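Re: folding output
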Amino acid sequence: MKRIAIWALITLLSASGRAFAVDTPIDYQTLDFRLSITKLRAGNHDSTGINQYFFQTKIYGLPVLKEEIKKPFADRKKQEVDLGKFAELKIDSLKYWIPEKKAGGTLMSVTGDRVRSLIAETMRINTVPEDETSVVCVVTMYEMNKKFGWFGEDTKVGEATFSIIPESLPHGAKVENKVLTITDKQGTFVEIKLEYQALDVKAPNKV
């Protein structure tokens, strides 16, 4: 009888905790982040022996719906924002790239405001609340093959993916610095550093 009473009390406390637990709304202004190429070894992708690479960055807003989460990413409902290209590099096959002192061209900065706008669009188009949305960023590496910049198709080397706002609960942003990698069987090796401004101890305090 005593065990039953204790179990009932634990169950009641747990239920109360869930009832009163409220996810803190996301402050999208804290989600500014930067992508930078920190290491690159060229693959063997061009018959000339000289590879011309670039990286394309896109973010996707996805509704977290039961009928959607089981589908492959390519088949899911999603809103896309193309953030453009960065790190256009020309390098010999199987050679390591040596970063320049001023690496402005190998950086991509993304504001939390872009993420906020994408979430709002995802909510509106899919008629879902904010806590049923997620955001994924995909960085795709290409080798230029278009003639005169227009004809033909560029070669996709590989891609790196990370969640800005995961589908897991409790709903919230995943503010975490990490290193992403891209490799392939042609000898390519790339490291891309993901850094959130909110985690930069050198950044000035906001007033």
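--- second protein (sequence, then structure) ---
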Amino acid sequence: MFDFGDDHRERFFTWCDDVVQACLDREGAVFKAWWPRKTREGGYELVLELTAGDGMPLKISETIPETYHELLEQEYFIDHPPDKD
């Protein structure tokens, strides 16, 4: 099993997995990728790249709860610029 390092990090990745699963169930799509993105307002969202049932590309975003913002600042955005979209 993957070692997340701590409970907070594990809860974040579990939350991401739950969001992906809910989108797949709701949209009937095929998962391609996900990544966090900083919004213009200073918050964060999880961007999901999917392929719809008809094969068309689909992007969905879900607001990331504030409880994970500090984790993203410390762990992810040190080396990764915000998404260009």
